[in-house]
Design a protein that fits this description.
The chain is mainly α and about 675 residues long. The chain is about 70% helix and about 5% strand. The chain is built from 26 helices and 7 strands. The protein has a 5-stranded mixed beta sheet. It has a two-stranded antiparallel sheet with strand order 1-3. Helix 3 runs antiparallel to helix 4, helix 6 packs antiparallel against helix 7 and helix 15 packs antiparallel against helix 16. About 30% of the residues are buried.
């Protein structure tokens, strides 16, 4: 007793320790949602729109709130919102410093939880856009790859939803670098990622826009227009920023194909989206594009208006992008040439702007040629024409190489340098072979489907016919059962009324009682498909006793039942009685003296074996049975039909076999009926 009481405190402390351990694990997996979390969520929601409209005022509010935040994740979430304010104020360097601070915090955490992973991904995304706008495309690509790596971490499964957008941005950056195979590859990854999160329609539109711009650069105008039309059908489903990008790209397509009237409304629509975004660095390129389109349309006043507005951004001191400033100067040069102001045009040409954009050099050369042609310096114009032709050849070579690289990426072929015509011819041949193979496979598939369908229909019809046949048999058996019950029932009633009047004839008591009992048992089992073995033995014994009391020359039944036989096993009703009745009625000749009738019942493995054997004259021919006026020939027929129906619903079958011993065993005579019934036979 004492040892039992000492063990109880140990058990209590063990249960308490287990409870605390499980509670701590649960707390670790599901951090509590504190009031500070709720306040920060509310602030981020309310201040995000305010940051777009009033970034300076929002910065003051965020700076004040940062002093009261204790949780590190909440602190850096608010700090990220502060970086967005600097972006809206067009201070990308200040925003980038905050991005760098947040990313260092996320990397110090090692194995991030979902909240930190989400913060790191969003921060990498914005840092990438910041570097892209600043002309550092390689660094922008590095940030996007970092975000993708974080999204694939095991603890960041909830962040997989960002993968399609990240791959799309990566495709855009590679497109800007003219790395078309990588751009197309990331478009494909964006589609796969979108399919995996059931957002196919939303992201496929953006992918179509990116592919359209890629094929536009490759001078494949029909395919570019095809993808633009696919994306254009669902333009309203895109975000405001995506619509801004798409409208600008669609306008550039018509500008490239020199359909300036169609390009103008798209540029105007894109400029409307840029103004709604309220970010100066998105408005400036559209102002320059509108100025160039109006210049192409010969509307110099409108062109002057939009170029002057764009120049306010591109020519201010803090803008270090020499390519964009050079591009603006070339637009002004074209404007002055169109107006015939040679003095202003020459002032622009006297300026020097270092730049490395091949397309800008080519465009500049064409404008210089036009300038010297109008000035009358044809020698200088001729020299520039030769340089332009050389550059034009180089541009064609670059375009052809990009096409080969892009097609090579799509079809995963060797990157051997081939002539474009030969390469396209080979691809056409392979496409034709693939088309023929596909048609053949489809035809084979159709033949297989039709064949299988035909087989199934035939099998179904065969099964329906078999079912109809069985229903017909069941109906006939029911009719016969009803008819067979009418006569015994009538006879039983007559016997019950006659027996009290035969009390003086005691010699009739035994046969009449046996007859009455036999008829009653037949009526009881006539409605049952199966009865226990002991009941069937009792019915057969009563029937044999009745026949023996009427005709003493009928042989006694010799029973041989093994002890292990289960007397409760079910078997089809009258399966023993009908063969015994046939043997008594038809097996023996009247003059035969040594009459024998034996029934052997044994259990063998999973079967109950029943053998009914007599030494009569053997199986009679059909003619003899029909000629016998006392035989109807219905008993065995009904028994065989019943067994057939029952066997159709069971895997293990009942077997009933009738042998003429005179034919199978020379020197013997008589008939043997062999019955095998599985112990697991079902009668439902």
């Amino acid at each position: 007793m004492a040892r039992g009481r000492k063990g109880q405190p140990l058990l209590f402390f063990f249960i308490l320790y287990l409870f605390l351990f499980l509670w701590s694990c649960e707390k670790k997996q599901k951090p509590a949602y504190t009031p500070e979390n709720q306040r920060v969520d509310s602030l981020c929601t309310s201040l995000m729109q305010l940051a777009v409209e009033e970034p300076c005022q929002t910065k003051k509010l965020i700076t004040y709130e940062l002093k009261n935040i204790r949780d590190s994740i909440n602190y850096y979430r608010m700090l990220f919102l502060l970086s967005r304010c600097y972006e809206y104020e067009n201070k990308p360097d200040s925003a980038y410093l905050i991005y760098d601070t947040i990313l260092r915090f996320c990397q110090r955490k090692g194995n991030p939880n979902p909240e930190i992973a989400r913060l790191e991904i969003i921060c990498c995304n914005n840092a990438s856009q910041n570097r892209y706008n600043s002309g550092h495309t390689d660094r922008a690509i590095d940030y996007l790859r970092q975000a993708i790596d974080v999204a694939y971490q095991p603890d960041a499964k909830e962040c997989r939803q960002y993968l399609p957008q990240l791959y799309l941005l990566l495709a855009e950056d590679y497109h800007f670098k003219s790395d078309y195979p990588s751009a197309v590859d990331n478009c494909r990854k964006a589609m796969l990622a979108a399919d995996s999160i059931d957002q196919t329609d939303q992201y496929h539109l953006s992918v179509y826009g990116t592919l359209a711009r890629i094929y536009l650069d490759l001078k494949n105008f029909p395919l570019a227009d095809h993808y633009y039309e696919l994306a254009e059908k669902s333009l309203d489903q895109l975000s405001l920023a995506d619509r801004y990008v798409f409208a600008n790209a669609r306008g550039y397509y018509y500008y490239t194909t020199k359909e300036y009237e169609k390009a103008l409304p798209w540029y105007q629509q894109s400029y409307s989206y840029a103004r709604q975004l309220k970010m100066e660095h998105t408005e400036a390129p559209l102002l320059a594009n509108l100025g160039e389109i109006y210049l192409c349309l010969g509307k110099t006043d409108s062109s002057q208006y939009y170029l002057d507005k764009a120049a306010g951004y591109y020519f201010r001191p803090d803008n270090t992008d020499t390519n964009s400033r050079y591009y603006m100067n070339m637009l002004y040069l074209s404007l002055y040439l169109e107006k015939g102001d040679m003095k202003e045009a020459e002032c622009i040409l006297n300026q020097s702007y270092p730049q490395d954009n091949f397309n800008y050099i080519y465009t500049n050369g064409k404008r210089l040629e036009e300038f010297y042609t109008r000035k009358g310096d044809y020698k200088k114009a001729y020299e520039l024409r030769k340089q332009i032709d050389s550059l034009d050849d180089s541009l064609r070579t670059i375009t052809i190489q990009n096409n080969i690289a892009e097609i090579d990426s799509r079809y995963r072929q060797d990157t051997t340098v081939l002539k474009r015509d030969i390469f396209i011819t080979q691809q056409d041949r392979k496409v034709q072979q693939f088309r023929n193979t596909t048609i053949i496979l489809i035809l084979v598939l159709i033949v297989i489907v039709v064949t299988v369908a035909t087989i199934m229909v035939c099998a179904r019809r065969k099964k329906e016919k078999e079912y109809a046949r069985q229903v017909s048999i069941i109906t006939k058996l029911r009719m016969e059962n009803v008819r067979n019950r009418i006569s015994p029932h009538f006879i039983l009633n007559v016997l019950n009324s006659l027996i009290p009047g035969l009390e003086g004839h005691k010699e009739l008591n035994l046969p009449l009682n046996l007859l009455t009992q036999s008829i009653r048992e037949c009526l009881l089992v006539s409605e049952k498909i199966a009865i226990p073995l002991k009941d069937e033995i009792n019915i057969v014994s009563n029937y044999a006793g009745l026949r023996k009391s009427i005709n003493p020359r009928i042989p006694e039944i010799q029973w041989d039942i093994t002890p292990e036989t289960d007397m409760t096993i079910l078997l089809p009703s009258m399966i023993i009685q009908i063969p015994v009745e046939n043997a008594i009625n038809h097996a023996f000749r009247t003059e035969q003296q040594d009459k024998q009738l034996s029934i052997t019942i044994r259990k063998e493995n999973h079967l109950v074996s029943i053998a009914i054997e007599d030494n009569g004259m053997g199986v009679l021919s059909s003619r003899n049975r029909i000629d016998n006026p006392n035989s109807t020939g219905q008993g065995l027929r009904i028994l065989f039909k019943t067994i057939e129906l029952l066997n159709s619903k069971n895997q293990n079958k009942i077997r009933l076999d009738i042998q003429d011993l005179g034919k199978t065993s020379p020197g013997m005579q008589g008939t043997r009926v062999n019955i095998e019934i599985p112990t697991d036979f079902q009668y439902d």
